[in-house]
Design goal:
CATH topology of the domain at 439-586: Heat Shock Protein 90
Strand content: 15-25%
Helix content: 40-55%
Radius of gyration: 50 Å
CATH architecture of the domain at 439-586: 2-Layer Sandwich
């Protein structure tokens, strides 16, 4: 009992120590990882700063002597003495143009003592108003100048070099050469599109950004772009860049290198997110390791406790097992008897269902054959008139051929062909209804079935002036027998046209829309509608609302049977005006 009490008291203590160990391990790992990653970042960025600074200083040092190369020509002094000498001016202009082309600079100009342009490498552009050049203003005062001077039109980073021209100890003018730093900046631009890359920029003595891998930052104060947030453990500066929040990065580490020759500062902004992410990962890993150790300690104690409980429960389980086996043997004997009885009942029910299914199939087919006899009388009446027309047209055709009137004979034969097609469709409906369904429905494009039905009724639509509107989504398919689907559509559309014979507006609408795993098709007409007292008898065989001799009253019955074979139902939808019949079919 004392050992068990000690174990129970030790569990909370071990749990508390484990929690403290997890917290301490996570904290130490977080601080160590942060310091290590910042040190590694400082080392990598330091090399980048050296590289950027060396490239920039080398480029500026190489270009700084360009004005001295031009100053060696004595004709420049002669031009400054006689600025109206057009021939000499043209000669110097072309020399400056060739010099710019060879040196890769942007522009070279000769200024007189009043800082006015006397000759220029871009003379071919014609007279233009030049903005005051800071290097030119300093050079005509007798001082060599090297200054950052952005392009006034585009804001592109440029540097001007000014050198005074002296004659007999006096400053008579100046040579100004302007170069572009845009090629260097262009190598930085790509980093602006990758949030994780460093972003180099140059800030002048006034704190204004003059070059940057992010073009939008140029000519803006760095203090407005970056907001200091807090210092790092080793003293490096952290800033918040609001404009980078859209890229998912806002916190940056600032590394700086002075460029004493130019009076500029080279800065590199580096994403600090990886440092904190690695620190969090290290903290989680250390915490997980400490938690694992604590769990192992708890597991060892728990296993010892469980082992003692197992010994106590094993005897009780053995007794319960013996009692359970006795009850199982008893219940097994009862279940075997019940199963044998159930198997006999299932076999008898399956046999009865098979007999019932066979009887139902025979009844359905017998009903169809009975209706065939009733249909035969109506179809014989329907075929009588076309047969009479066929005989008359055939006799006429023979007479017309004998008289050499081939064009009129051709029209007769085409009429015979059309009448034969209509007779074939009448008899095919009877055969389609009489035969059993194949039982293998296929995916049928609904638009194709509607197109075929429209072609069958094209003559009636034109003769009776019926406006047909189709609203069927492109590519919608149904699973059924395509020919029998056309038969249903033709029957419903023909009934709709019959209902609109006395209407002023004759509009027939056919619409289809998918609903879950079914497709609902609606046929709407603008007729006078169907009275409520007659709506209940519409699907009775031989019941019709047409005049005597105009219909057999079997179109809706046949269509309803076909739709049921498709697994759906044909129904009349109550509406305020006209009539709407709809049926549903499985989606293809």
């Amino acid at each position: 009992m004392r050992l068990e009490s000690f174990r129970r008291a030790a569990l909370p203590l071990i749990a508390f120590v484990s929690v403290m160990l997890v917290a301490l391990s996570a904290s130490v790992a977080y601080v160590w990882s942060q310091r290590h990653d910042f040190a590694r970042l400082d080392d990598a960025v330091g090399h980048q700063l050296d590289l950027y600074a060396a490239v920039l200083e080398m480029e500026l040092g190489k270009q700084a002597d360009l004005p001295g190369l031009i100053d060696q020509d004595d004709r420049i002094v002669a031009l400054l003495a006689e600025p109206r000498d057009e021939a000499l001016r043209a000669l110097i202009d072309r020399k400056l143009t060739r010099f710019v082309a060879r040196s890769g600079s942007l522009r070279a100009t000769i200024l007189d003592a009043g800082a006015n342009v006397v000759a220029s490498s871009d003379w071919y552009r014609g007279a233009q108003a030049d903005a005051p050049d800071p290097c030119g203003a300093a050079a005509v005062r007798g001082t060599s100048a090297q200054r950052f001077s952005p392009n006034p039109a585009t804001g592109a980073p440029e540097v001007c070099f000014g050198r005074p021209v002296r004659h007999d100890g006096a400053t008579v003018g100046a040579i100004v050469v302007r170069i572009s730093l845009q090629p260097i900046e262009a190598t930085w631009i790509d980093s602006a599109f990758r949030a994780e890359s460093e972003k180099p920029l140059i800030v002048d003595a006034a704190g204004v950004v003059i070059m940057s891998s992010v073009p939008d930052w140029r000519q803006q104060a760095f203090a407005q772009l970056a907001q200091p947030v807090r210092g790092r453990a080793d003293g490096a500066e952290l800033v918040l860049i609001p404009r980078l929040r859209a890229q998912g990065v806002a916190m940056q580490v600032v590394h700086e290198r002075l460029l004493p020759r130019l009076g500029w500062r080279l800065l590199i902004l580096t994403n600090a997110g990886d440092v904190w992410r690695d620190a969090r990962t290290a903290a989680w890993s250390a915490g997980a390791g400490a938690a694992l150790l604590g769990m192992l300690a708890l597991l060892v104690l728990q296993r010892r406790r469980v082992g003692a409980q197992k010994l106590a429960t094993r005897a009780a389980l053995q007794r319960a097992n013996d009692e359970l086996e006795a009850k199982v043997r008893e219940r097994t004997a009862q279940l075997e008897t019940s199963n044998e009885t159930l198997r006999r009942e299932v076999a008898e029910r399956q046999h009865a269902e098979a007999v019932l299914r066979h009887a139902q199939e025979e009844l359905v087919q017998a009903g169809k054959l009975a209706l065939m006899g009733q249909l035969a009388a109506g179809i014989s009446h329907e075929l009588g008139q076309p047969l009479t027309a066929l005989r008359a047209l055939a006799q006429n055709g023979v007479l017309l051929l004998e008289r050499g009137r081939q064009a009129q004979a051709r029209e007769n034969f085409e009429s015979i062909h059309d009448i034969a097609e209509r007779m074939g469709r009448i008899t095919s409906q009877l055969k389609s209804f009489a035969r059993k369904s194949s039982g293998d429905p296929l995916a049928v494009p609904l638009s194709a079935a509607l197109a075929n039905a429209r072609q069958v009724l094209a003559a009636r639509l034109a003769d009776e002036g019926v406006e047909l509107a189709l609203d069927v989504p492109e590519g919608l398919a149904v699973r059924c027998d395509g020919y029998r689907l056309e038969q249903v559509l033709v029957n419903l559309m023909a009934n709709a046209m019959d209902a609109m014979r006395t209407s002023d507006v004759r509009r027939l609408e056919v619409a289809a829309a998918p609903q879950a795993e079914r497709v609902v098709v609606q046929v709407r007409d603008s007729g006078s509608g169907i009275p409520r007292e007659l709506a209940e008898r519409l699907f009775e065989p031989f019941f019709t609302t047409k005049a005597p001799g105009e219909g057999l009253g079997l179109g809706l019955v046949i269509s309803s049977h076909i739709v049921r074979e498709f697994g759906g139902s044909l129904r009349l939808v109550p509406v305020a005006s006209g009539a709407v019949f709809e049926f549903d079919v499985a989606k293809g």
